[in-house]
Amino acid sequence: MVSGHLTDEAIIELYFERSEEAIMSSMDKYGVLLRSLAWNILGNREDVEECVNDTYLAAWNSIPPERPEYLKAYLCKIARNNALDRVKEKTRSKRGGGKINLLLDELSECIASEADTVRLLENAEMAEVISEYLRSQTKLRRTIFIQRYFYASGVREIAEEHGMTEGAVKSLMFRMRAELKDKFIRKGYGYE
Predict the structure, then answer these.
(1) How far apart are alpha carbons 76 and 42 in whole angstroms?
(2) Closest CA to 101 of 117, 112, 120, 125
């Protein structure tokens, strides 16, 4: 069987059978996406490869008993968390700039302080507020927000993909952050 043509369900079954083809099939189907996601966060080829390899290992160790409903989202979440953990590890010793700090700065416009941003990003209640907000948006606005803040895609990359100018993407993101800020304030995450 050609692994590139397997459905997610078939790949998950391979994990449950403890077949090494599960990892190969995951690599064939989602390797480019996972590398892109990790690159957007890490920006270093060696770190990206380690992150993606760690993602496959984590999937191997968690399936079973986990049975993800959406394999793509499951693998992306693992890769994103691995990349963010790697960034945290590197910035512990040296505080500095970087794409993740830029994204946190952008999102901090919606929330009281950077400390709150970091704390609340891991908070399920905040995730629900963001999900509720995104469900009320058009598909284009929702997609652009997710590309920017989940996949850490660059403004230029987003603009090119959607046939927009960088200025239009920046303007849209500014408006969406302002709307989200209002939503947080109404939910009790106000500024002092």
Answers:
(1) 14
(2) 117
- Residue at 86 is within a domain: yes
Structural domain containing residue 130:
99-186
Whether the pTM exceeds 0.70: the reply is no
Q: Which residue has the tokens 């709307």?
A: 179
Q: 75 with 110, same domain?
A: no
For 43, phi then psi, to 5°, come to 65, 25
70 and 151 housed in the same domain: no
Tens place of pLDDT for every residue, the chain, 192 residues? 444 579 999 999 999 999 999 999 999 999 999 999 999 888 889 999 999 999 999 999 999 999 999 999 999 999 988 988 888 777 655 544 455 556 666 665 665 555 555 554 545 567 778 888 899 999 999 999 988 888 888 899 999 999 999 999 999 999 999 998 888 888 776 654
